[in-house]
Design goal:
Elements (H helix, E strand, L loop, with lengths): L2 H5 L1 H4 L7 H7 L42 E2 L2 E2 L17 E7 L2 H17 L2 E7 L4 H12 L4 E5 H9 L7 H4 L16 H8 E2 L2 E2 L2 E7 L1 E5 H4 L2 H11 L9 H10 L12 E4 L8 H8 L18 H13 L12 H9 L3 E6 L3 H5 L10 E4 L7 E9 L6 H11 L2 H8 L8 H4 L2 H6 L3 H10 L2 E2 L8 H16 L5 H19 L5
Parallel strand pairs: 3-4, 3-5, 10-11, 13-14
Antiparallel strand pairs: 1-2, 5-13, 6-7, 8-13, 9-11, 9-12
Helix pairs in contact: 4-16, 4-17, 12-13, 21-22
């Protein structure tokens, strides 16, 4: 599951607009828990932090560090392709993120990086309720962080405000970059969507996330159920690949529509007022639409947006009556209790579904969301523009996202961002869902939060209000799209964000 929903605070806070004059002088601050970057006050720019080869590394041999064995994989590249030679002894960097799994993953990797580089890495973490505000404040005032690991939408906001820098000059520095970097190994959609912003590579992908289609494998493979489905529909029962197939299958498994259904509901998801929009966006791209285009203009008030919203409304017929109140825990528990045939959810559902207390343990299958264009979430790691140790910071970022070190962070619930790690037999055996996760990440097109700097939270609120009104039956889909488009246009125009 993306952290936005683990937090609660990120999506529940209401945001206030900031005047253009204040934004120009002080940078943008979006209140309480979601504050994005304005103008950097560091007095430094990317050029002043341009990478250079470390003179102390000349003639030194790489520091050999023995890598751990993780899931049967002996990690080898512990010196970044021979580029870490203890040359950063006496130096220190500070990496900031949210407390929890991300913090632990960074600390676990830092142990090996410190041995190879000679440097000290301090990981500062903040509680879920305050980490965005704390990190934002430091980026604009104290400048004590060298690197940050944050949700993608935040990183892009920082890039717009000049608070994080382009990584391309460091990658182009042959004396600095690891020969094993291999940018082509990143899942292309992740490197593009997570890392690139306005022709700059402002971050490396760190933690991927995407909506997955979970289904009751035991039901779909049951001969009697398959026979019943064929008798009622004239079709073979299979895992749905299109919206039409999904609707027909969900109707079959809904007991109020089919008394012979072995479960109560054909479909469910979490759909409270922080997450209902994903029922819509899971089909929006599939039908050819977007939330915003490359020019930051709304791109959903069209046939694609209407079809996706109408289908989202249809799905409520097959879902629990309390659907629009279901959060992460409530929705997952309902599925684990065996009451639902199909569910769209973030990958973390598998932990609940396969728990010893789950009634569906060992009975769950997974696939790409019907339509083949699932909604994506995710986190990236970026370098601040105010760092005093840019080379060292770059090397740490490169290190923790490298092929072998990615395997280390899998232990801390950070799935891979590199294609090669999804191909490792050891990881495929340990995580049977990885092939589906790879397919889903490859096909994802729309982010869980509109990727518009500064105003993403406000756009979330607008989208949630519109989708909720349709799902509750208080507004027609086309009217909701009209209102949403008008509000998007006004908010984005007020932010003054333009593509280059």
């Amino acid at each position: 599951m993306i952290v936005f929903n683990q937090l609660g605070g990120y999506l529940n806070m209401k945001k206030k607009g900031i005047s253009k004059s204040v934004r120009a002088l002080l940078g943008l601050s979006l209140a309480a828990a979601f504050v994005l970057a304005g103008c950097s006050s560091s007095g430094k720019d990317a050029a002043s932090s341009a990478p250079s080869a470390s003179a102390s590394s000349s003639g030194q041999a790489a520091v050999k560090v023995e890598g751990p064995n993780v899931y049967g994989i002996q990690l080898q590249d512990m010196d970044a392709g021979g580029t870490l030679k203890g040359q950063y002894a006496g130096k220190k960097i500070v990496v900031a993120t949210m407390a929890g799994d991300t913090e632990k993953a960074l600390k676990d990797a830092a142990v090996y990086f410190e041995k190879a580089s000679g440097a000290k890495v301090e990981v500062q973490s903040f509680p879920a309720q305050s980490y965005m505000e704390k990190i934002q404040l430091d980026l604009q005032t104290n400048h004590s962080f060298d690197s940050i690991v944050m949700p993608v939408a935040l990183i892009h906001g920082y890039a717009e405000g000049g608070l994080v820098q382009d990584l391309k000059p460091y990658i182009d520095n042959k004396a600095l970059v690891s020969p094993n970097l291999d940018l082509g190994d990143y899942i292309p959609s992740l490197l593009d969507i997570y890392g690139n912003y306005k022709s700059k590579l402002v971050a490396f992908p760190y933690k991927p996330d995407v909506q997955i289609f979970f289904y009751r494998k035991d039901l779909f493979e049951d001969p009697k159920i398959k026979e019943s489905f064929k008798a009622k529909t004239g079709k073979e029962l299979k895992v749905p690949e299109t919206a039409e197939e999904m609707g027909e299958t969900a109707a079959f498994f809904t007991k109020s529509l089919n008394p012979d259904s072995p479960v109560t509901y054909g479909y469910s998801t979490m759909a409270d007022n922080t997450s209902s929009r994903w029922i819509w966006t899971n089909r929006l791209a599939a039908f050819g639409g977007r939330d915003v285009d490359k020019d930051f203009k709304p791109a959903f008030n069209n046939e694609a947006g209407l079809k996706a919203l109408e289908f989202a409304k249809e799905l409520t017929k097959y879902a629990p009556k309390q659907l629009l109140t279901l959060g992460w825990d409530e929705a997952n528990t309902l599925f684990a209790n065996g009451e639902v045939a199909m569910m769209e959810q973030w990958p973390g559902l598998i932990q609940t579904a396969e728990a010893d207390t789950s009634k569906v343990k060992g009975k769950v299958g997974y696939a790409v969301t019907p339509g083949g264009a699932p909604t994506m979430g995710g986190w990236s790691i970026a370098m601040t523009s105010s760092t005093e140790n840019p080379d060292l910071t770059y090397k740490f970022m490169e290190y923790v996202t490298s092929k072998d070190l990615e395997v280390l962070k899998v232990q801390d619930k950070m799935d891979p961002t590199r294609t090669s790690n999804y191909m490792r037999p050891e990881l495929q055996k340990q995580f049977p869902m990885y092939q589906t996760l790879l397919d889903s990440l490859t096909k994802g097109k729309i982010m869980a939060d509109p990727d518009v700097p500064y105003v993403s939270p406000r756009l979330n609120d607008i989208m949630e209000q519109a989708v909720q009104s349709v799902l509750r039956g208080t507004m027609e889909p086309q009217k909701a799209l009209d209102i949403m488009e008008k509000s998007f246009t006004e908010v984005i125009a007020d932010a003054g964000i333009k593509n280059e």
